[in-house]
From TrEMBL:
Keywords: FAD, Flavoprotein, Oxidoreductase
Lineage: superkingdom: Bacteria
Designated name of the protein: FAD-dependent tricarballylate dehydrogenase TcuA
Organism: Azohydromonas lata
FAD-dependent oxidoreductase 2 FAD-binding domain boundaries: 4-433
Necessary cofactors: FAD
Length: 476
């Protein structure tokens, strides 16, 4: 089978690439590893896209200029980001929504539980599943061929880094250009174990990780490119978009509804009944994704988010009910924690809370003094029953180890960009996200680089076609 552009993957980045390549006049074949019912990868679980805008725009209020977006990204990554590619992503986020609408994506104002991101994030009507379905419908109208249950296990790449063919089992598929958008390796338990290793307590932390998204992101092509073809790599294999999610969540595909969003309204304790990080460090959309990694570093990779009655109604309610008790000692006993250690932690925290004007919509002046770790904002004594606790474990969304690229989205070999092999989405997100996360930026990266990769793939296919025609005429 032959095509102009082969797209490997079936989520947002892959679909953006396929649509752009088709709009560029290329014939396109998209290979999705999953069955049709599970198509879309992690994109099906998304809700929104972080967008730069200099003035109010339909569903976005106020302004969110480039420099503020950049500073937010710089803060959460701790500087582990490629500024050129990050700013490319940011600028692209300001212009992509009209294109998205042209392919059937609809936006809506954020629901009441997410008003704090109404300025920075555009929400998809119907969520990520609706976005994915809209893109597939548009792709089919443009003539993109889609094959499901078609996992690619290896590629043919020549010594100059040029793509020649992909293999699905024993079937060889050739193309003039290829876009890789097959996700990270978060669903590959053995690779996660290899990356995280054994901790000082003799535990394998990765054994207790839950996977928020698709089970099909095994990292087969990523490992193949890095180890068999020597593609340039970017990122740390232990870094990921990792969230504290309900410990009762399913192993795969729990999605957004398994997130526990009350961390900043209370305290978080580990298996020893002790706090281990500032729960009020920053607004939740900027800092929620640090908590998965923090919990991964705790004994047994488990912790409990503890709140009292004052917090109820101030956060997105979780799917599963929490453990409820009329007193803190009763709560500790129900959680199986050492009551004395737990009560010592809560008493120290409550005594350290300083009066202030509580306001969960801003960085308020409710803080602690004389306790470690501090709670910088929204610190109120946990003293009003009933009391609630939610067990949390690390929930991996996607991994950051990936392929090094540039503003053309080309895969690089020995720092030389391929002229017909491109990458988008999770497979290259580590270029922008060295660590940390801020809400919606994964979709910003996937959309920006999916469109770039698709555009360049179509051009590469056209150039290859022109070369072939010239050679044919020369022989004739």
């Amino acid at each position: 089978m032959n095509t102009d552009v082969l797209v490997i993957g079936g989520g947002n980045a892959a679909l953006c690439a396929a649509l752009m390549a088709a709009e560029g006049g290329a014939s396109v074949l998209l290979l999705e590893a999953s069955p049709r019912a599970w198509r879309g990868g992690n994109s099906a679980h998304t809700r929104n896209l972080r967008c730069m805008h200099d003035a109010p725009q339909d569903v976005l209020v106020d302004a969110y200029p480039e420099e503020e977006f950049w500073q937010d990204l710089l803060k959460v990554t701790g500087g582990r980001t490629n500024e050129k590619l990050a700013r490319l992503t940011i600028r692209s986020s300001s212009t992509c929504r009209d294109w998205m609408r042209s392919h059937g994506v609809h936006f809506q104002p954020p629901l009441s539980g997410a008003l704090h991101v109404a300025r920075t994030n555009a929400f998809f009507m119907g969520g990520g599943k609706a976005l994915v379905n809209a893109y597939y419908r548009s792709a089919e109208r443009l003539g993109v061929r889609v094959r499901y249950e078609a996992p690619v296990n290896r590629l043919e790449i020549d010594a100059q880094g040029r793509f020649a063919a992909a293999w699905v089992g024993s079937e060889r598929i050739t193309a003039k250009a290829c876009v890789l958008a097959a996700g990270g390796f978060e669903s590959n338990r053995e690779w996660l174990r290899e990356a995280w290793g054994v901790n000082e307590r003799g535990e394998w932390p990765a054994d207790n990780f839950l996977i928020r998204g698709t089970r099909f992101n095994q990292g087969v092509l990523l490992r193949h490119l890095l180890e068999d073809h020597g593609a340039d790599r970017i990122g740390d294999p232990t870094q990921a978009h990792m969230v504290a999610i309900d410990a009762r969540a399913p192993l795969y595909d729990g999605g957004i509804c398994t997130r526990i969003d009350c961390v900043s309204l209370g305290v978080v304790v580990n298996r020893e009944g002790r706090r281990f990080y500032d729960e009020g460090e920053d607004f939740w959309p900027k800092r929620y994704a640090i908590w998965g990694r923090l919990v991964a570093q705790q004994p047994g990779q488990i912790a409990w988010s503890v709140i009292d009655a004052k917090a109820i109604g101030r956060f997105m309610p979780p799917v599963f009910p929490g453990v409820v008790a009329n007193s803190l000692p009763e709560l500790a006993a129900k959680l199986g924690l050492d009551v004395n250690a737990f009560m010592g932690t809560l008493q120290d925290y409550n005594a350290a809370c300083r009066p202030g004007s509580f306001d969960h919509t801003r960085l308020d002046d409710c803080r602690t003094e004389g306790v470690s770790p501090p709670k910088t904002h929204w610190a109120r004594p946990i003293d009003t029953g009933p009391f609630y606790a939610y067990a949390v474990r690390p929930g991996v969304t996607f991994t950051y180890l990936g392929l090094h690229t540039d503003e053309t989205a080309a895969v690089r070999f020995g720092n030389v960009p391929s002229d017909n092999l491109f990458v988008a989405g999770e497979m290259m997100a580590g270029n922008v996200l060295g660590q940390g996360y801020t809400a919606g930026v994964g979709m910003s990266i996937g959309t920006a680089f999916g469109r770039i990769a698709g555009t360049h793939a179509a051009r590469a296919a056209q150039a290859a076609g022109n070369t072939q025609r010239k050679e044919h005429h020369a022989v004739a």
